UniProtKB/TrEMBL annotation:
The keyword Metal-binding applies. Residues 168-182 form the CCHC-type domain. This is CCHC-type domain-containing protein. The keyword Zinc-finger applies. It comes from Phytophthora megakarya. Keywords: Metal-binding, Zinc, Zinc-finger. GO terms for molecular function: nucleic acid binding; zinc ion binding.
Length: 184
């Protein structure tokens, strides 16, 4: 749990905006911590009690990040965004890109977001996306291109060539099928 803690914000899983002054969420989150983080949490609770501090979400989040996040976390995220490349499906690339982007605490300008996103795309997809206004537009245009481009490639390859290797059930010759058999 500790290794993935820095990668998975609680608000992403709970789906609701979290009030930083809320003190009811912390025990719920803490109940899912691993052994090492649970020991840290006990010390955190003792510190809060000794100093009369409420265990709010904001304080918990700040302190656990101090303890478990690397100091160069934001720099590392930027490097990972910069190095990310589309090797598999477009959907997988978009998901990984958004997963990295949501972890950033320091703001990234819309222009930089589009730059990072487009530079990791396959060449033909990247060329199709021409001056989008937002990252969402770039993602939509890329999705449209991938759907049309790869759907037409699948159809081109399979519809035309399968008859070259087909065997006619009527005359047993290769290159056509029974409805098209010249030996009827």
């Amino acid at each position: 749990m500790e290794k993935s803690l820095s990668k998975m914000p609680a608000k992403q899983y709970y789906g609701l905006p979290v009030d930083p002054h809320d003190d009811t969420l912390v025990p719920t989150i803490a109940s899912n911590l691993g052994p090492s983080a649970m020991n840290w949490y006990r010390a955190f609770c003792q510190h809060c009690q000794a100093h009369g501090l409420p265990r709010t979400w904001g304080l918990f989040k700040t302190e656990i990040r101090k303890r478990y996040r690397a100091r160069d976390f934001e720099f590392d995220l930027r490097q990972r965004l910069c190095k990310l490349r589309q090797h598999g499906s477009y959907h997988d690339y978009v998901s990984e890109f958004q997963n990295l982007l949501i972890q950033c605490l320091e703001p990234i300008s819309p222009l930089e977001q589009r730059f990072y996103f487009q530079q990791g795309l396959r060449g033909d997809t990247c060329c199709f996306i021409n001056d989008p206004g937002t990252l969402d537009e770039a993602i939509d245009w890329g999705s449209q291109f991938e759907n049309v481009h790869f759907a037409s490639n699948r159809n081109d390859g399979t519809d035309r060539n399968w008859t070259k290797t087909a065997t006619c059930h009527r005359c047993k010759e290769v290159g056509h099928i029974a409805p098209d058999c010249p030996h009827k």
